[in-house]
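3.2 Worked example (two chains)
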Amino acid sequence: MRYIYIIVLSIFVMSAVNAQFKVGVHGGAPVGDAKDVYKSSWGINAYYMFGDEKNALIKFGAGAGWIHYIGDEFSSGGQTFEIDDASFLPVYLAARIHFLGLFAGLDAGYAFGLSDVDGGFYWKPLIGIGLFSILEIDLFYHSIYPGNGDISSVGLAAYIRF
């Protein structure tokens, strides 16, 4: 039993040495069902990725964030109506494939609704580039499926690696 404990502890210590924490901000334009309802989206994300980027082709991790969609307004019958903002807390697993400083990846999990909008399945494919060993820029598409259509956007994100 003691040997199993030592092995598990060693794996966690070695993982922590090669782990990478990063935080960032993103902004985007709503697409699909959301483009007629929301003006823009923005938010923050944090990731904890395992593996040394210089030596690992594939990296895995987990993350969480906050996404805020700004409601639009529309006119009908001479009256103007304003759509409420929507906020989500996505919690997800992440995978990245690195090659020559570029990467492609996928985040998938669940986005909890923080406003009157329900939560749902969350996924985010992305492509990006790592710069100066501390900065990461990516283009993404993220989508949330609360059950009655999707809330999606395309955008740009910037992350600082620690």
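3.2.1 Second chain
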Amino acid sequence: MLCIQLENSDPYFCLAAEEYLLKNFSKDIFMLWQSYDTVVVGKHQNALAEINYPFVRENNITVARRISGGGTVFHDAGNVNFAYIKNVNDTAEINFKKFTKFVVEALAELGVTAVNSGRNDLLVNDKKISGNAEHVFKKRVLHHGTLLFDSDLSSLGHSIKVAPGKYTGKAVQSNRSFVANIQPFLKNKITTEEFRRFLLGVQLENEENSVYELTEVDNLAIQKLADEKFKTWEWNFGYSPKYAFQNEAKLGDRTIKIALNAEKGRITEAAVSGDFFSEQKADFLNQKISGKRHCFEDIKEMLNEVQPDVPDELVFAFF
């Protein structure tokens, strides 16, 4: 098995690397990577429904979509991501526990008892330390997961704290869990980097495993995939299933009521009312907003056409 450590902390590059290695290599692969602050949604989720949009935007937290299903997770420099890419004879026999066994055994070496919970999670003391997901391509499977080691749990919590009832649709919804970092459970404290090196070392104890470094050809192909797919609004937000959005917000002594329908991330219908805008301005907005992306930039541009210099607070009412 090839063992890869990605040194690139761009989540788009790392997610693209997973797809590239899945589809273009024939050998089994184990990979470790970390990224800067990012909320990663599952393939079949509505990204906007899974994130605290104002917090994520104001704190420069990246939003990315992966190719596997499942729920939303948070990455930062204190989280280590692991990925297995393996050939399988029968995709029906794929077992999450088979892939998380390595993590459970590695943590046991550090004196930490982790257990599988449900299909996707690993728990320590009843708190989630790892979320996992899978994607099958032909007769190869990508299994990947997070390992919260020394993450900013406050930032994690705020990033995915969403108001219930705003978004409705058929998108997969996340199951919120109590989370914890691995580091506090260790008797002998180590850094996140030392933890990452430890995980790689455990894999390399098997003589059949060897380190593989991405070639220039690999890096160029991965970057191309990141630029053309994983960095795009069309993938990260436009891929969301059809949805409806409703919200009512108070700005000072005025109220705005918003109802939107969206498909592929673009607004198809809008009904904005309340006493924030005159009836004439609201009608103009409802007509002009159709076809626009449901994103901060497009919404702000439209609102400024109706009333110049609108505050960000008003724009965020649309999310």
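3.3 Remarks
The chain has a mean pLDDT of 96.
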